[in-house]
Design a protein that fits this description.
47% of the residues lie in helices and 0% in strands. It is mostly helical and 79 residues long. Helix 1 runs parallel beside helix 3. The longest helix has 13 residues. The radius of gyration is 13 Å and the shape is globular.
Length: 79
């Protein structure tokens, strides 16, 4: 199968994924291994975070925007 990656798509590094997991854990959304790999528990936690903090789209997909929003919330700049 052949195809093209979506134009402008930025993929997270394993370190960034681990940071998302850590921040989700800090905020009480995630209880799992901090391994930088997104499984169902990570996706569910991201989805719950997106819904609670109005971070559309609430699709459970980890992106740079989700990471930025998590940093803001965990840092106390958003209630």
């Amino acid at each position: 199968m052949r195809g093209h990656w979506p134009a402008g798509e930025t993929f997270l590094s394993r370190t960034q994924k681990a940071e998302i997991q850590q921040l989700l854990e800090k905020l009480g959304f995630y209880k799992g291994a901090i391994d930088g790999r997104f499984g169902q528990a990570s996706r569910d936690a991201i989805h719950a975070f997106q819904i609670k903090y109005n971070a559309p789209p609430a699709d459970g997909y980890g992106t740079l925007d989700v990471l930025k929003r998590l940093r803001e919330v965990a840092g106390g700049t958003i209630q």
